[in-house]
Amino acid sequence: MPSMADLTVADAARALRDGKVTATALAEDAIARQEKFGKTIGSYMQFLPAEARRAAKAADAAFAAGADLGPLQGIPVSVKDLFAMEGLPIYAGSAKELPEKFRAEGPLVRRLRQQLAVIVGRTHTSEFAYGEYGYGTNSQHHTPRNPWDPVHVRPPGGSSSGAATSLCEGTALVGIGSDTTGSVREPACLTGNVGLKITHGRWSLDGIVPCSPTLDTPGPLARTVGDCGLAFAGLDPSCDGKALGRAMASSDVAGLRIGVAEDHYWDDSTPSVAEGVKRALDELARAGARLIPMKLPEARKAQTVFDDGDPCTVELYAFLSSELPSWIETLRPSLKTKVLAGGKMAAADYYRRWHLARSMTKAFEPRWAEVDVFAMPTISITPPTVEELKKKPDPNESRNTSMVNLLRLCAVSMPVGLDVAGMPIGLQLAAPTMGEERLLAIAAACERVLGTSRQRLGVPPMCR
C-alpha cells in the first residue's frame, strides 16, 4: 500500500472503493506517521488513535456492505481545536478546557461522521483563533513547526496551523480549519498546501468557537486542488459533487481572465516571493490565460476597517466577556491587550467600520464583469522565525487575505514555488460570492498547468 504521504484523497477514495486498501490500513499508517513526526512537528492538540480505529472499522464495514456514504468515507481527517466534538475536551487554543456546552457538535462535524470519515485528531490553533504574535503561534500549548525549514524554527501560519502541518506529516489527507482574515489560506500557503476560503454564511458556524462571527468561515485544507474539491463536495450540502468533478476535470485556462491585483498587494514583498507568483502567472498566460492588471481601490478602502483598532477584537471581547469571562485573565499578554482594547471601541465606530466594508463589497461587484478571478500572492513575505516574531510581529501578515473576507468573496491559495529561503510560495485566486464551484474548476485548470505541490515543490525536508 502506498504511504499516506504519497496518496491524494482521490487516490485513496478510489482504492477504498476498489478494495485495494482499507480504511483501517490508512488509519494505521496515519498513527504510525504521528509516532514518527509528532514530537518534531507537533500538529495535534489531541491525537485520537482509538477513535480513528473505531471510525475506520465502521467505514470498512460500510464498504463491505456496499454502502457509499460520501467522498470522505474512510478518509483520515484532522479537525481544528475550535470545532466541537462530542465527548472530547476543547480548548480553542486557550489555557483552560472550555465548558461542557462547547462540546455540542455542529453540522460540519456531523457531516464528517455521517460519511464515516476517520477523524484522527484535534489540531493546534492560535489562542481563540486570533493569537498573540500571528502566523499560528501559540505559547499556551504548542506552535507546530513548519516542516519546510529543518534549521530555523518557523511557524506554519495560522490560525489553522496544525491542520496544515498534519497534511505535511501525512497523518491526515484533509484538514478542517477556519478562516477569519486568512486562517485557512495562510497556513496552506506557508506549508505548500491548498486552502479554500468559502463564502461567509455558506456553511453554518454552529459548533465552532467564534473569533469574529461577522467574518468567520470554516474551510478545508488539502494537498491538491482536486482534494480540496472532493472535501468541499463532501462537506457542502448544496454542492452537486458529480457536476463539480466534471467541471474540475474539463476546465481549461485558455481564455481565462485573471485580474492581477495592483502594486499595493505586492508592496514590501520578499523579492523571491513576488518573482515566484509572477512566474506562475506568466506560465498560465503562456497556456492561454489573459492577465489583466487592475487597481482595486474598493478593496484597499475596505481594509481601512482595521486602521487604529480591529473590530474583530470587539466581537472576541463580546464573546469572552459574556460566555467565558474568566478566560480573559488567562490570555497571553499581547492578545489580552488587544481584546481589552476591543472592549473599549465605541459602538458607533464598530458599526461604521462594518458599514464601510459592506458598502465596498457592493461597490466591488461590477469588477466581475471584467475578470473571472483576481490573483495576488497569498502571503507576500518569507515567514519569520518564532524568535523574530516575538521581537517584531508582522503587521502585513493578513493584508492580502483579509480583503477576501471583507468583500465577502471566496478564494483559494495554491502552492507555486519556493522562495530564496526554501519556504513555500502561495498564489491566491479570489472569486465572486458563492462562486466556489467555478473557483475550484479554475484552480484545477491552473494546477494542471503549474503542477501539484509535490510536483512543483517536492516534499518538506522534515517529512522525508
Task: Describe the overall structure.
With 464 residues, the protein is of the alpha/beta class. The protein folds into two domains: 4-252 and 376-463, Amidase signature (AS) domain (Amidase signature (AS) enzymes, Alpha-Beta Complex); 302-352, no CATH class. Helices cover 39% and strands 14% of the residues. Strands 1-3-2-4-6-5-10-11-9-7-8 form an eleven-stranded mixed sheet, with helices on both faces. The longest helix is centred in the last third of the chain and has 18 residues, at 347-364.
**CATH class descriptor of the largest domain:** Alpha Beta
Class from secondary-structure proportions: alpha/beta
Q: What share of residues is helical?
A: 25-40%
Q: Which fold name corresponds to the CATH topology of the largest domain?
A: Amidase signature (AS) enzymes
The string of secondary-structure elements, in order, is HHEHEHEHEHEEHHEHEHHHHEHHEEHH
Q: Total strand count, please?
A: 11
Radius of gyration: 20 Å
Architecture of the largest domain, according to CATH?
Answer: Alpha-Beta Complex
Count of DSSP-assigned helices: 17
- Strand percent estimate: 5-15%
What oligomeric state do these chains adopt?
single chain
Mean pLDDT metric: 96
Total of domains: 2
How far apart are the first and last residues' alpha carbons, in Å? 18 Å
Question: Going across the major beta sheet, what is the strand order?
Answer: 1-3-2-4-6-5-10-11-9-7-8
